[in-house]
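Problem 12. The chain below contains 210 residues. Write out its predicted structure in token notation.
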Amino acid sequence: MMKSVGRRSPRTWCLIAALLAGAVPMCVARAQQAMPSADGSAQRVAARSGDPSERPLQPGDKLKLTIWREPDMTGEFEVQPNGAVNFPKIGRIQVDGLSTDSLRKVMLDAYAVSLRDAAIEVTPMRRIVVDGSVRNAGFFYADPTVTVRGALALAGGVTPEGNRKRIELVRDGRETTINLSSAPNLADSPAQSGDQIRVPERSWAARNTA
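Solution.
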């Protein structure tokens, strides 16, 4: 077989080399297609483990805008059903697809047109509901530092009749039971847009037994 290979003409060797040259890039391309994208994988992991405080605002939330030395443009502005907010001077900005950091950059660029060296602070205020056996049930707006436990404090705290061991949290359509007596747990995580927190009453026997 070695002699047979050695007797191949230069034209034959050129043809073999050309075929090999075409096959190598094809194999590389197929290998790249078979390998998962590192960037895409990283993005999916980041989406699953992202900081809840950095999640985009939803309709009904508010955005607290503080502009130094500009009290007329400072205030809290509600996210409309279309996901936009109307700000002084710069008008409407679509905020429902932006993280807090991205939104801050967009607003700095927008206000830079009319304000020189503007010092701007942007704070997301997430709308939550607290009801049941609390002192002041209702809607509240929580900044990124407010936890589920802190949201209960905004509502005046759990009443003596409330069951602190079976706090009901509805988030993204899923209900979870939280025991405030055990820590750390979900009660110490940041409150999120649309959270519904309910404190049920303790049983009659528990309320009337020392």
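Discussion. Residues 131 and 137 are 5 Å apart (CA to CA). Students who got a different answer should revisit the alignment rule from Section 12.3.
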